[in-house]
Design goal:
Layout lengths: L4 H16 L4 E3 L13 H11 L1 H11 L6 H11 L1 E13 L4 E6 L8 E2 L2 H6 L8 E9 L10 E8 L6 H9 L3 H11 L13 H10 L2 H4 L4 E6 L5 H8 L3 E9 L1 H4 L16 E12 L2 H14 L1 E4 L2 E4 L3 E7 L2 E2 L2 E2 L17 H4 L4 E4 L15 E3 L1 H12 L4 H10 L8 H18 L7 H25 L20 H4 L6 H8 L5 E9 L5 E15 L3 E5 L4 H16 L14 E7 L12 H13 L7 E3 L2 E2 L5 E2 L4 H10 L4 E5 L3 H7 L8 E5 L2 H9 L11
Parallel strand pairs: 7-12, 7-15, 8-9, 9-12, 17-21, 19-20, 21-24, 24-25
Antiparallel strand pairs: 1-16, 2-3, 2-5, 3-4, 5-6, 10-11, 13-14, 17-18, 18-20, 22-23
Helix pairs in contact: 2-3, 2-14, 7-8, 16-17, 20-21
Length: about 700
């Protein structure tokens, strides 16, 4: 029998809300279907609330321009001289001509339209981001120079405000769990569908955490997860003060200020800028733009030309991430691996205040979007705009006085914790500061969202970002699954960590993307075997030219020093050494696998396996010297994640190792070598061999 408890709680919650003011309740199901789905949910719900379902549907059918009727609207305007449309109107100011002009989103081919200056004074939100509303237009067949052919005569917004005190009174009557459900119903979700999942309360809180950039100024948020979890749905539908950039190219003029026209970019007139499908983001003038963006993420200020500007728009990065068993796939050495290279800068990542684990949010089924009632989304959007202007500084100061920041928390961590905590207080406790277990839960959740950012930083650059706990004293540290996860060992990992076979070894590599750019550290299993053949080296596996040349250099060194390896001088006659890179679908390149190739070949030729749980990196010269490598910290972290206990690295990397080894010293023993002789001694655990040649 189906559990009826969630439905009963839903009915009781609706009864409580209607007792305060039944006008607040909107029938959500009416706005999801038919022509009403062609306008944002907040606009559709407002129309239904004001007019009723039938008249709202008729208004959208009659007044909303679209591809199918755009020409008919334009013909009626030029024929009659007047036209009323339901559209999104945004106003910008031409500083050179000293006049405002408007842009209509749905009525195409109109170009810029003239607007009366008093319209901006009556509806300030029209400037920049714009508003949805009923727009009455006049066509001017005769006009003076500089006038647009179309003029806005009247504007009536479809959005309305909600008395803030009524909102607070409603919150006071509900428990925090009832309030969370009401907000989710109002946003179009049906939280009842998650009742049977292991932790439905956590799912609900993660969903509402997406609202933090809308209620708290200048919050930098990232969410990564599978597709179809509703990441973009919320931002597109809850407020007309949000601007969504879907992949593609963006420019400094679009984001900040157009130096030619003086017009503010989208950061200057929105509450929140959302970069959807961030993996496909491209930025014109990358280095200049990223420098400006880093300044803005830090301070809310940026410079263009010879002027400095300020804004408080939040930044949201949304991206996809592959999962296995409900958690990020085991091959991720850090979760930001799939971001575009322009964002894989630890200075950018450290400026992110919070990281929502989108992989924990269930995919949205039709049932999950079947909320039948709730507050109008327009009401929620208007309240969020008011909350954005409300400071929680005094409340946060009182909380921190009782629960100080943990030792070692940086200034950026503190700023992030304050931002996230302030947003959560506004969303969940706008009426009062919680206490007891509710406050503990809130503080732990806020700390987790920032801790997740730091966890990735410590994997990307462990020497700079060591392991530390971010949060508040006296509050238990949150330990979600991704905080304690390790890489799922493959069959190769298990064998190489316990009992490697002759001819196989772990090379530490740098993973590269489809453009050939380095992304992060990884391991590469190298297998070598001796087969009958014409002689020489034979390689298989997806590799680049530099890697192939490093294998050839290792082979040539072995061929010239066979006796130094206690092998007969004719050991390679009639013999081919076959070298294979396991997991050939992943492209590899670079010379740093040279030492791994050499040790694998020596192992195959002598029949001796290397010591268990070993990983190596280093370039081998023809004289048997081990050259330094790049990306050492990321490579060593990859070794740790795959359970390797020992690593051989070049002596020439000693200075770099001194900065980073403290992050691994309890998990990985690192041995530094300068020559092939030293590498052989460490790899095979042998007594010193005779010096080969010039080493």
């Amino acid at each position: 029998m189906a559990d009826t408890a969630p439905l009963a709680r839903q009915r009781n919650l609706r009864a409580k809300v209607e007792m305060i003011d039944p006008r607040w309740v909107v029938e959500k199901g009416d706005t999801r279907r038919g022509v009403l789905a062609r306008v944002p949910r907040f606009a559709a719900e407002n129309l239904v609330g004001k007019m009723g379902l039938g008249p709202a549907v008729e208004a959208v059918e009659r007044y909303l321009p679209g591809p199918h009727n755009n020409e008919q609207f334009l013909y009626a305007l030029t024929r009659d001289g007047y036209l009323s449309v339901l559209d999104h109107l945004a106003i910008q100011v031409d500083v050179r001509q000293g006049r405002p002009y408007g842009h209509l989103s749905n009525l195409r081919k109109t170009g810029l339209v003239d607007v009366p200056p008093e319209l901006m004074e009556e509806y300030p939100a029209l400037v920049g981001a714009g508003l949805w509303g009923r727009v009455t237009l006049r066509y001017r067949s005769a006009r003076t120079k500089g006038e647009a052919p179309i003029f806005v005569v009247e504007f009536q917004p479809v959005t309305t405000g909600v008395p803030f005190e009524d909102f607070l009174n409603l919150r006071r009557t509900l428990s925090v769990d009832e309030w969370v459900d009401l907000l989710l119903f109002s946003l179009g979700y049906n939280p009842s569908v998650w009742a049977e999942l292991p932790d439905p309360r956590r799912i609900k809180w993660l969903m509402l955490a997406r609202l933090i950039p809308l209620v708290e100024p200048q919050v930098n948020l990232i969410e990564l997860g599978p597709k179809n979890t509703g990441k973009t749905y919320l931002y597109r539908n809850v407020s007309d003060r949000t601007f969504v950039v879907s992949g593609g190219m963006t420019t400094p003029a679009n984001l900040f200020v157009n130096l030619h026209t003086g017009e503010m970019g989208i950061l200057g007139f929105t509450d929140c800028v959302v970069f959807d499908e961030v993996a496909g983001l491209a930025i014109q003038d990358i280095y200049g733009t990223m420098s400006i963006l880093k300044d803005y993420m830090e301070s809310g200020r940026y410079s263009r030309g010879n002027r400095e500007y300020s804004a408080d728009s939040s930044l949201v990065l949304l991206g996809n991430l592959t999962t296995e068993g409900g958690q990020p796939a085991s091959y991720y050495t850090h979760f930001f691996r799939d971001l575009p290279p322009i964002l894989l800068d630890t200075a950018v990542i450290d400026r992110l205040h919070m990281f929502i684990p989108g992989w924990e949010i269930p995919k949205l089924t039709p049932d999950a979007l079947e909320a039948e009632w709730g507050l109008s989304m327009d009401a929620v959007g208007s309240i969020m705009s008011k909350l954005r202007l409300h400071s929680m500084d005094s409340e946060i100061a009182g909380i921190v006085a009782r629960y100080p920041y943990r030792p070692g928390v940086t200034q950026r961590d503190r700023r992030a914790l304050d931002k996230v905590l302030g947003g959560l207080l506004k969303i969940l406790y706008p009426h009062e500061t919680p206490s007891g277990s509710e406050l503990h839960t809130l503080l732990g959740f806020a700390a987790e969202l920032r801790q997740r950012v730091h966890n990735q930083l410590s994997k990307m650059a462990p020497g700079e970002f060591g392991d530390r706990v971010i949060g508040f004293e006296g509050i238990e540290r949150q330990r979600p699954a991704d905080f304690i996860r390790g890489v799922k060992w493959t069959s190769h990992d298990r064998r190489l960590n316990l009992e490697p076979r002759p001819g196989e070894i772990t090379a530490l590599m740098t993973r590269i993307d489809q453009n050939g750019d380095p992304v992060d550290g990884d391991i590469q299993v190298v297998e070598a075997s001796v087969v009958t053949g014409p002689g020489g080296l034979q390689m298989t596996g997806f590799r680049g030219k530099a890697m192939e040349q490093s294998a050839q250099a290792a082979f040539h060194y072995i061929r010239e020093h066979l006796t130094d390896f206690r092998l007969p001088g004719d050991a390679l006659q009639g013999t081919t050494i076959a070298v294979h890179l396991v997991s050939i679908e992943r492209r590899r390149d670079g010379p740093s696998a040279g030492l791994a190739f050499l040790l694998a070949m020596v192992s195959a030729l002598t029949g001796r396996p290397v010591v268990p749980a070993l990983a190596v990196t280093g370039e081998v010269t023809l004289h048997g010297e081990i050259e330094p490598v790049s990306g050492l910290s990321a490579k060593l972290y990859a070794a740790v994640r795959h359970g390797r206990l020992y690593a051989i690295v070049p002596e020439a990397n000693r200075d770099e190792l001194a900065d980073i080894h403290h992050a691994f010293q309890d998990q990985l023993e690192v041995r530094m070598v300068g020559t092939v002789t030293e590498a052989l001694r460490e790899a095979f655990g042998l007594a010193p061999l005779p010096s080969p040649g010039k080493t």
